[in-house]
Amino acid sequence: MTDHLETTAIRAGRSADGRALAPVMHASTTFALESVDEGRRLASAPGSTNFYSRYGNPSVAAFEEAIAELEGAEAARAFASGMGAMSAVVLGLCSTGDHIVTQNRLYAGTQMLFSAVCPRFGIEVTAVDGTDPDAWEAAIRPGKTVLCVAETPANPRLDLVDLRRLGAIAGPMTVVDSTFATPLAQRPLSYGVDLVLHSATKALAGHNDASLGVVAGSKELLDWVWGFAVLQGANASPFDAVNGLRGLRTLGVRVARQTETATRLATELSNHPKVAEVVYPGLPGFAQAELAAAQMDLAGGLLTIDLSGGLEAGRAFVESTRIAQLAPSLGGPETLVTHPASTTHVSLFPDELEAAGIRPGTVRISVGLEHPDDVVSDLLSALDACPS
């Protein structure tokens, strides 16, 4: 009998806990060896957990096991951040002369990795319209393209990539950043995607107290990523891994509540005269509503709005909330409002912001766990401060 994912999130990742119900933290960076032969074996075995914590740690391994089980993967590797995970995948799997296909709407940190770092290493990157499945395939250079890297839903306009079409691409390895969705909403590996990645700092850990990234997939690919990760050194700390495990225990109820509130909020804002557009996968008018229904089990707790009054309206809105906090993250218990053009995507040039669909009045809202009435009332009240 197969458990529901909400049950898996509570029961998985307990290998380091013994009889303790709460996650146990193994804070040690170093572990005593019984012999030279044991040291040789642990120093070269992917995922060693009782050697040196840059190689692996029992608490971190428990978090990795939980994510692998949630994603239906053979293995996972945790990192100190989502960007630690993304850079390990890109630089660990690609070499000079290789080619990557990605999309033109991405988290800005990932976009900067592709536009500023990859060229320094002689890795070419082509960005396409991620919503067009044919564009991905057309951009592939046989024998040269090593990775297709997608982000779905994308930050911040929640564009979707067709996972079925992406997973069917032959040749390059496929990678999906599924941070906004969580495994409860979608599982990219089930569509044939090779690797799924999360900034677990966000909804997976879910309490704004853990900096974590994680990538999951086949053991063969994860062993390769592990080899680079040991040299990269962006390993997750046991403290953050324990907090990540704690967060997973409530993932099901948190995402369900956030989805319920976000759906109501999106509906309310859609009817407001100062809101030019509401982007939310759970709205009937969402541009990719059919695809959202086909590949997402939950619409999630994130929505993006465009305010009619532009920059001054965006500024007034995010600075006028009482319950919602102005902050650049998502997925936690607090409702957060983010002005992407001045924070998460501030490194982009004006033409890049336009290509990303980020306007002066664009605001991303991460719905928290407060009472839905209070969240809706707070954000509607904040609109009163906005110029039209």
Using brief descriptors, characterize the structure shown:
alpha/beta, 5-stranded mixed beta sheet, 2 domains, homocysteine desulfhydrase, 15% strand, Aspartate Aminotransferase, domain 1
Helices and strands, with pairings:
Elements: H1 5-11, H2 36-44, H3 58-71, E1 75-79, H4 82-93, E2 99-103, H5 108-117, E3 124-128, H6 133-139, E4 145-151, H7 163-167, E5 173-177, E6 195-198, E7 213-217, H8 219-232, H9 238-248, H10 251-270, E8 275-279, H11 289-295, E9 302-307, H12 310-318, E10 325-326, E11 336-338, H13 350-355, E12 362-366, H14 372-383
Parallel strand pairs: 2-3, 2-4, 4-5, 5-6, 10-11
Antiparallel strand pairs: 1-7, 6-7, 8-9, 9-12, 11-12
Can you put this structure into words, describing what you see?
With 388 residues, this protein is of the alpha/beta class. It has two domains: 5-248, Aspartate Aminotransferase, domain 2 (3-Layer(aba) Sandwich); 252-383, Aspartate Aminotransferase, domain 1 (Alpha-Beta Complex). The chain is built from 14 helices and twelve strands. The strands form two sheets. It has a seven-stranded mixed beta sheet, sandwiched between helices. Helix 5 links the parallel strand 2 (99-103) and strand 3 (124-128). The longest helix has 20 residues, at 251-270. The chain starts with a helix and ends in a 5-residue tail after the last helix. The mean pLDDT is 96.
